[in-house]
Write a structure and sequence with these properties.
With 99 residues, the chain is mainly α. The chain contains two helices and two strands. A two-stranded antiparallel sheet has the order 1-2. The longest helix has 24 residues.
Length: 99
């Protein structure tokens, strides 16, 4: 039954060719959606109802934290401290390396 139109349709689900075509179409649709999400710069998580989705979300968030931490460390400008050599000189502020 089509939930939008209420139309009934009989589908031969015992056909292996139909199941293969359906699986291929579903994979193509999922890949397209994931590609559009990534292209937009967003992160993507696929959840399945036959698994514990809460554990999957926790793993996803943990991976994001690691990736973000690593990215921040890579892009953080290095700081260099220059020390005053002579006694009585005012300390020099840390210099930031150019980007």
């Amino acid at each position: 039954i089509d939930t939008e139109t209420g139309r009934r349709m009989h589908v031969q689900s015992n056909s292996s060719k139909l199941r293969e075509r359906y699986a291929a179409a579903a994979r193509a649709r999922d890949d397209s959606i994931a590609g559009h999400i990534r292209k937009a710069g967003a992160e993507h998580l696929t959840l399945f109802t036959d698994r514990d989705w809460l554990i999957e979300i926790v793993k996803f968030v943990a991976r994001r934290r690691v990736v973000r931490r690593t990215a921040l460390e890579r892009h953080r400008p290095a700081t260099h401290t220059v020390r005053a050599e002579a006694v009585g000189r005012a300390p020099v502020r840390p210099l930031r390396s150019p980007r």
